[in-house]
What we know:
Blueprint: E1 20-22, E2 25-27, H1 30-33, H2 48-52
Antiparallel strand pairs: 1-2
Amino acid sequence: xxxxxxxxxxxxxxxxxxxxxxxxxxxxxxxxxxxxxxxxxxxxxxxxxxxxxxxxxxx
Length: 59
């Protein structure tokens, strides 16, 4: 499988084989997949979406 980057807006994490897939988009973790409810952080503390405290789908 080719490397894919998480579809969360600010996230640049390469998704694992066990990626969460929703409507053809892939996410590195449940927090990114659910657009960070209650500002739930990404699994990767170095990630931009974690630092922004927000996610969502890339446009």
